[in-house]
Amino acid sequence: MRTLFVGAGATGGYFGGRLAQAGKDVTFLVRPGRKAVLDGRGLRIKSPDGETIVRPRTITAETVDGQYDLVVLAVKSYALEQALIDMASAIGPHTVIVPLLNGMRHVDELVGAFGPERAWGGVCLILATLDADGDVVQMSGLHRIGYGPLDGEDERLPEVTFALSGEEFDSNPSHTIVQDMWEKWVFLATMAAATTLMRASVGDINAAPGGHDFGARVAAEAIAIATAAGHPPRAGAIAVVQRNLSTTEPMTSSMYRDMMQGLPVEADAILGDFVAEGAKHDVTTPMLSAAYTNLSIYSAKRAQ
Fold first, then answer.
1. What is the pLDDT of residues 167-226, one digit of tens each?
2. Nearest CA to 76 among 107, 44, 100?
3. N or C: which terminal CB in the chain sees fewer CB atoms within 10 Å?
4. What distance in Å separates the CA atoms of residue 196 and residue 38, rounded to the nearest whole number?
């Protein structure tokens, strides 16, 4: 499939770069500044196993060259509106759109913009960032994506699976992608709320008095929201949350890392929408609400 990655940051750059490395037909739709970096340095992926340099094909919104079979949307939630505009001319009648965004709000926006027959669901799990040179730095061996039709069935799934599969990462087609996305939301909201509210890694939180109980209360709120919304996390998903919350390692969330660097954060999509979902179902969320208020203050001060 002719595949377009919208965004070449840590997430899009990693998975799209690995697919390009594997010889798949991949193009990146990026901003002019990012295009200049990729065209000049190449797309460099620095992983625990070494460094890889890929010379990807890049375009900008002004040079979109027709319709693509598969579009992977890999931008932050606050960049979604512009991304939908930039990618519009790349969407054809049979295009599949796989979003790798956090939260759930983007699903409704994709369906509204391009129709339910094109909008799928997607999740990714990776610890990665961009360094000062614009290179992708993979910080652990975790690199997994999942994708699938929102209603669970689509004859195009084998084709999409082939397009999104490479030897360098775990690729998982799913017939339960909506549930998968909710479970990731529970995980992200828990980790983001705990680390940003305490301004600390999970290991530091657990080393402090009351740290374990604090993390457990945050997780309980997140699980209660998903359950009330009709998507109770499965046992395996709950185990992942509990295992990560109990670590003594200096684990942090991407939102915490962004906040510590003074960067924009996805507070509304990950925590604001989650707290609102809880209110809709009369779920009490003092911990998650406090974390969202904290991040809203941070965002307001950053905008001054």
1. 789 999 999 999 999 999 999 999 999 999 999 999 999 999 999 999 999 999 999 999
2. 100
3. C
4. 32
**What is the C-alpha to C-alpha distance for residues 17 and 24, in angstroms, rounded to an integer?**
10
Collapsing DSSP states into helix, strand and coil, what is residue 238?
A: helix
**Residues 6+ positions from 168 with CB-CB distance below 8 Å:** 18, 21, 22, 143
| C-alpha to C-alpha distance for 287 and 197, rounded to whole angstroms | 9
Tell me which residues are annotated as active site: 184
With beta carbons less than 8 A apart as the criterion, state whether 267 and 292 touch. yes
Structure tokens at 172: 């998982």
36 pLDDT band, cuts 50/70/90, is very high
**Amino acid at residue number 154:** D
**Residue pair 55/41 in contact by the 8 Å Cβ criterion:** no
